[in-house]
Amino acid sequence: MAASIEHHVLARPSFDKPVKILIVVAPYYKDIAEAAVAGAKAEIEAAGGTHEVIEVPGALEIPTAIGMAERLSNYDGYVALGCVIRGETTHYDTVCNDSSRGITLLGLQGLCIGNGILTVENYDQAWVRADTQQMNKGGGAAAAALHLVALGRKWGASRDGVGFQPNRDELKIAGDVKGPTTA
């Protein structure tokens, strides 16, 4: 079992300016969600950060809520928490893959997200992973978000996203960017 293997854990980052984290949780399995949120809150507070918690209906809605918060609010990072337990249909695969893909795409755009959506075979596996006295995956997801925030601050001021950026000269030629155009 993976729980018996020792893992390296990075030292908690420190911050000279306050850190504000949004915890987005899908509380379908309420006790699992509450344990994961407790772990995330404790980790954020231990790093001197503040947090807010919002609930969404399910794991598929987590990336959408994070994307909305990024556009409409002012959080430094995000923690995605939920639990998907395998059932009798392929719905499990869809929810696991699409929620993970959505979070990954947001991360590639520069958002600092710790993914704590548990994808397990049964309830017992979920509890071991969520419980703060066992694997504490909520705390681990918060730690991941905090580390990404620290990296972003280390590398400088925020930019207009990361990853693919359209050629600004081409936009000027097309008239989509204010300023002098080049011919």
Please name the defining characteristics of this protein.
4 strands; 4-stranded parallel β-sheet; 183 residues; Rossmann fold; globular; alpha/beta; 43% helix; disordered C terminus
What does this protein look like?
The protein is of the alpha/beta class and 183 residues long. The chain has one domain (18-174): Rossmann fold. Helix content is 43%, strand content 16%. The chain has helices spanning 30-46, 62-72, 91-108, 123-130, 137-154, 168-174; strands at 20-25, 50-55, 77-85, 113-120. The chain has a four-stranded parallel beta sheet, with helices on both faces. Helix 1 runs parallel beside helix 4 (123-130) and helix 1 (30-46) runs parallel beside helix 5. The radius of gyration is 19 Å and the shape is globular. Residues 179-183 have low confidence and may be disordered.
